[in-house]
Design a protein that fits this description.
The structure holds 2 protein chains of 2 kinds. Chain A is an all-alpha fold. Chain A has 2 helices and no strands. Chain B is an alpha/beta fold. The N and C termini of chain B lie far apart (82 Å). Classes of the chains: A mainly alpha, B alpha/beta.
Amino acid sequence: MIASVIIGIAIFGYASFALVKFINKSKKGKCAACDLKNSCSSQCGMPPNVK
Amino acid sequence: MEIALIGNPNTGKTSLFNNLTGSYEYVGNWSGVTVEKKVGVFKNNIGQLIDLPGVYTLNPLSKDEGVVTSFFLNESVDRLLNILDASQLERNLHLTLQLLEFEKPTLIGLNMMDVANKRGIQIDASKLSNALGVPVVPVVARSGKGCDKLVDVIATKSIKPAKKNLVYYGKEVEEAIIALTGELMGKTNHSARFLAIQYFEGNEYVKNYVNSIADSKKLHAIMGNLESKLLKENNIKSLANFIYIKRKEVIEEIVAEVAKKSDSIIPLSEKIDSIVTNRFLGMPIFLLLMYLMFMLTFDWLGTPLSDALDAFLTGPVTFGFEKVLSAVNASEFIHALIIEGLVAGVGGVLVFVPQIFILFFFISLLEDSGYMARVALVMDRIMESVGLNGKAFIPMMIGFGCNVPGIMAARTIETPRERLLTILLTPLMSCSARLPVYALFVGAFFAGHKAFVVLSLYVLGIVVALILAKIFSTTLLKSETSLFVIELPPYRLPQLQSLWRSTWDKGKGFVRKAGTFIFAGSVFIWILSYAGPNGLKVDMDHSYLAAIGNVIAPIFDPIGFGTWQASASLITGFLAKEAIISTMNIIYFVPNDASLQGLLADYYTPLAAYSFMVFILLYIPCLATVATIYKETGSKKWTAFSMIYAFAIAYVLSLIIYQGGKLFGLV
């Protein structure tokens, strides 16, 4: 029973965290929501002074 | 003596500048312009050399190109040094002819003769000099070869153009030029003919200049008369277009006279280009390559891999979870949550990882090899007819991976109107997150023609975008189109390492999303399907999820999938398109051996399945894309428009396909 509670809390805790984080990130749009942001050669991957 | 160095971009101007001058005197910003001009002193002190930004024409397209035109209008210059790329003579001469009309002493440095020779082009410099009426000196700017001679000629020879009026623009234009020069007579030091022609071409800088010195109404009337006369008598788009054509005719004559092209040494790159960018073959070749790509993704390579992964997830992985769950004595609720929620939801999406990576691998291969730049060129012809140009196809191609970077890439487009149009249309490109839906449905209903059906969806996305571009550009977003210039990179054999990197960059987001958002989504969707108004562990048809789905399900009845299951997955699909698949895996949870694909046949007919795929392709941009559209356009109105029109188009097309298909007796 204790195991069930721990697993349940872990799953729901992580799921809530991931969902909120994803929606917040998506809502930001632009680089924040982009899958390529770290390696993007056009905008996001560059240091600010090069942009 | 002040000498201006001018030429097309990438013709070696800066190399020549560095060779002709010992050092930079100063680099300074000019007031009101963003691009700097460089000024240097000739090594032998004969004067100053001014390096101007590279331009294709004196009629500026963008603000930074305007610096050259305003330099011509506002600064005094003694001589022009025009540098030409011998391997691109036709393109370069457009600028040269305009410079000659400026009627300042001009000298031509013919650069890149070595590149031209490699391409089998032999240019006779003395013949070119005769044809243009100005001295032509062959140089190799990179090594400095020929620069001494160039300096000698600049310093000593009188290089006033020998031939006047190189281009005869036809009776009507010439008469209008005379009328307009009459108005300008005595009011300017510049060549009145040059000003008249640039004015007719629509050069805004020249227009402001002549309006400030002469009667703008009279000038406008001359141009209006000329334009209406020409448009009536000739099959042309505009006066500027007419002038361009006349110049082009003269250029073709000159090139035919001075350049000899031997076919024997055409480089491989050009041989390939002559086939893949061919007016008639270009498009079929692109479609064939896409078809092969989908055959590999869905038939030959991808499906066996995905099936193996599926067997692994539904077999050993599920079995392992069950073993652990019973070992820790987990409750029935947790057991169902993990097996029916997480394994089904997340696993259902992970199954498609091999296919996504195979597709990205081939897209990266096409990009790295240099072929994609050719596709933009091939598409340019079609795009132009719908009010866009080939440049707009680049964001769309990026959109095949993910719409968000596609929309960001629209920043490279110059005119605000074309940029907005591209932003609105890029979400119609089928991004990789929609791929699992196609994979699932073609596997279930179109097993014999998987690649063909998926290709039809990708092409449908492009065709709908083109049709809408035409409609929008003639109604909502009217204005002129800009020019498309693309430097074709040489073909090269891609390195395996860079290929892998670029594949991984594109595909890792999909894997990461499975572990974050899809995980979370699966948990909550499962809860909604497990609980209902009557408590927990209800029959799924009486769950909260069914209740939500049932609210909007009737809307989708006419297009073939008015079930709560389809509606519920469409709602989750707005957050991320992959969620459609995880939702379906949870809703249609099938224990053990039976497959989701088999089960789907109970709920969809093949016709309804195709209608559903078309709807998924178009119905709405995902949340991240919507947010990006908002950030990039800065307009709530256009953001709302991008969602509403997409939904309307998707609905109408699905309706036509489903109802039309039924009329033709399809099921």
